[in-house]
Design a protein that fits this description.
alpha/beta; eleven-stranded mixed sheet; 2 domains; homodimer; 12 helices; Isopropylmalate Dehydrogenase
Chain lengths: ~350, ~350
């Protein structure tokens, strides 16, 4: 199994990308890597070139660039060339820590959608932080690939999320919930009321009803389905608040004199555990589900551990044949598409 | 100035309501209160009946009831009678800790909208938690009165929020931002792109552009304007995450043995400060802006302090003549309405 790696993407590329890939290579003997990027920058960083191949590229898509324009014009960039290799069957998955929009655009326009999928959904695995919860993470999509969504898209996200939860996280009969602004069946705007009915009508979905954004980290569902707009707002608010709480604690300790610093030393194991529980790096990158191959994006600020874990996540997706299962389902069940009146 | 109080609303009503009102009464000599509710339940709780009058009601709207149905049928409930008194000029403001939907419905259908306002916006004052920030709170609307919004509604929220920020919080030339899923001008769905242009085109608004939900507590804006759907999702995610972080800390301390408990004792002042910074009770209740009188709702679980502070907030609104200023503006500026093509 071969992964096409954008070696040039991310705040600390290519250094942390190469280091993360080498650690993953040592962990998974059945993985090979094609590293797309500037050989002069990449080569000196490689410690051991076993199962690593450099594919030279000359162009760069930077973080601020307009994504669709960039992938159209920068044909010799690491993102475009790596995605094209996946499209051509030269690699099985595409990994990048670069420009999110460009990675998504390369996924959709180069790797391509699975037949029957209207809109791929950006999927994150998020921590269940609640102490004592029986599971440690849940699948959340669409976290922002689409600013505007239709009923059909959300129905398809439910299946995409279900297959991911089953195949990659090993959850049996995952509980699927709809992100909405209230718990009851009749809550929400026109779209969410209709999606509730649609999800509830599917015999092969273990639909448990609505979930509110305040309950995301509480482990009530294994898959949370949402339009990209709402999920993105809730995700950013969750991350921003967690960060702010940690800032407040750090600030309080720094300005609380010796007493606070002593308290911090004693509570260090507790803070360490909280940091681990809330750390999204543990759970890998964001996957654009609904494409013909795994296309996975980690945060630009990802460290070596996050990159290694994300490669592990891709490894599981490939081993479990997530894509094959998804393709089979949407081939066998065209009614998932037909059952929807709108769009 | 007289406030019509729903004495029966809230998890601990009428006890905490009466206590909070009495504390506020002692603090503001220019306030009078009409307490709507069951006299047998209210009377024994009153310590001093100065400037307090009981208006007997016989019916109750409970927390789970369908709001519009409830206010139509329960004419002798504390919510309906208190709102009707405000409508008839017998009181200047309406306060409740009861069924949110019923309070909003009573505000819209009984107290009534200011001429020119299409949809009132539910408004919260939220803490700016960032250490060292020059201000301590910002105005946030619509936090959920409307699941579906149009351009015009968001433009009106900007003015309603601006007047609130100026009159009640004393902010000069408040910075107004649009909650969106990206920082740049061209971000968002059709609605948010159009609202950006509209806000930017108003000479009398200090529009500073988009804000993302992850930055809400960072103090970048004095007024954050949003459709009710998105603001509600971001607000609940913010509250849920803050609560989860505190749960994780508490759980870690309880299960961390003597060492963690000692650490906690040393860090207690730090945690206390964080609790204060994040405590929304300090900032009063949610105001339904755009109505002919202040209609203010606090959380059902509000304690005496939250109720006292909310009465203080209503006192400031009345003293500053927020409603009069809003009415004048929408009378003098009908073009705020006409400038919008849609709706």
């Amino acid at each position: 199994m071969k992964i096409a790696v954008d070696a040039m993407g991310g705040d600390n590329a290519p250094k942390v990308v190469i280091e993360g890939v080498e650690q993953a290579r040592d962990l998974y003997p059945d993985l090979e890597f094609d590293l797309y990027g500037n050989p002069d920058a990449i080569k000196p960083l490689i410690k051991n070139d076993q199962r690593l191949h450099i594919i030279p590229t000359t162009d760069d898509i930077t973080m601020g660039e307009e994504p669709v324009r960039a992938i159209r014009h920068k044909k010799d960039s690491s993102i475009v060339k790596a995605a094209t290799a996946v499209k051509n069957g030269e690699a099985d998955a595409f990994f990048s820590a670069g420009n999110t929009g460009a990675v998504l655009a390369a996924g959709i326009f180069i790797v391509g959608r699975i037949k029957g999928i209207a809109r791929p959904g950006l999927t994150s695995v998020l921590p269940i932080a609640k102490p004592g919860a029986s599971r440690h993470s849940f699948v959340y999509l669409d976290t922002g690939a689409n600013a505007e969504s239709k009923e059909k898209n959300l129905l398809q996200y439910a299946y995409l999320g279900k297959f991911y939860s089953e195949s990659v996280l090993g959850v049996e009969n995952p509980r699927i919930a709809l992100l909405n602004n209230g718990a009851e069946e009749d809550k929400g705007d026109t779209l969410h009321k209709a999606v509730w009915q649609l999800l509830n009508a599917q015999d092969d979905l273990n639909f448990i009803g609505n979930i509110e954004s305040g309950d995301l980290l509480y482990g009530k569902a294994d898959v949370v389905v949402s339009d990209g707009w709402t999920a993105n707002a809730a995700l950013k608010a969750t991350e921003g608040t967690a960060k702010m709480m940690l800032t407040l604690i750090r600030h309080g300790i720094m300005n609380g004199g010796l007493r606070a610093k002593l308290g911090y030393l004693l509570l260090k194991p507790v803070f360490h555990k909280i940091g681990q529980a809330m750390n999204t790096s543990t759970y890998g990158g964001a996957v654009l589900l609904g494409l013909k191959a795994p296309v996975v994006k980690t945060h630009g600020a990802s460290d070596v551990l996050a990159i290694k874990n994300t490669i592990g996540q891709i490894h599981t997706m490939l081993k479990a044949d997530l894509i094959g299962k998804t393709v089979d389902f949407f081939t066998d069940n065209p009614e998932v598409d037909k059952s929807v009146k709108s769009e």
